[in-house]
Amino acid sequence: MIKQAFSAVAIVVIFISILAGSVIGQRRGKICGDPTLPCRGSEGFSAWELKFAIPENAVIYESEPFYAVILKSVKIKEGDDCAKAISEEERLATQQLFERNKVFAMNCFEAGSISYSNVANDVGFMAIFGGKTQTQAKAILAKIKETGKFPGAMIRRMHALVNGT
């Protein structure tokens, strides 16, 4: 009797381990940090969003981890027009300075749009893709500091997220 109970528990533990392993091992979408290259699987993204590959029928998905250099952040207070926190004109002008690294922004969170981890909910920001490693991000930060345009720039590790539910 004890052997049968032990076997049943062992089977349940193995099943849960396999299930957990499949969830934990789930692939994450590849970040497309160079805006001059095509990004397969990222159709439907807005110009100001950092693109990443998403499977065709995915509803909730996240990107692989990456480093961003936050160029500007704006606290959004209740009643503010969050859409005006970072203008698209400002983002495009900044993109011209860094042709091969995507400059992206987030002003307002809306269901179905891209959001980013490691950022407060009440903050709009403009950032540049810094790379997949901290060393790459530090090199981008050094170039940014050379311009003198973003004195408070800082590195942040993040994921891009989509929740279309």
3D structure, described in words:
The protein is an alpha+beta fold and 165 residues long. The chain has a domain of 104 residues. Helices cover 28% and strands 23% of the residues. It contains three helices and seven strands; from the N terminus they run αββαβββαββ. It has a four-stranded antiparallel sheet. A three-stranded antiparallel sheet has the order 1-7-4, with no helix packed on it. The protein is globular. The N terminus is likely disordered.
Shape: globular
What share of residues are in beta strands? 15-25%
Mean pLDDT: 83
The counted number of beta strands is 7
Unreliable stretches (pLDDT < 50, length at least 5) are 2-25
Query: How would a crystallographer describe the biggest sheet?
Result: 4 strands, antiparallel
Keywords for this structure?
single chain; 165 residues; alpha+beta; disordered N terminus
Structure, briefly:
The protein is of the alpha+beta class and 165 residues long. The chain has three helices and seven strands. The chain has a domain at 60-163.
Topology:
Layout: H1 2-24, E1 60-62, E2 66-75, H2 88-97, E3 103-106, E4 114-116, E5 123-131, H3 134-147, E6 154-158, E7 160-163
Antiparallel strand pairs: 1-7, 2-5, 2-6, 3-5, 4-7
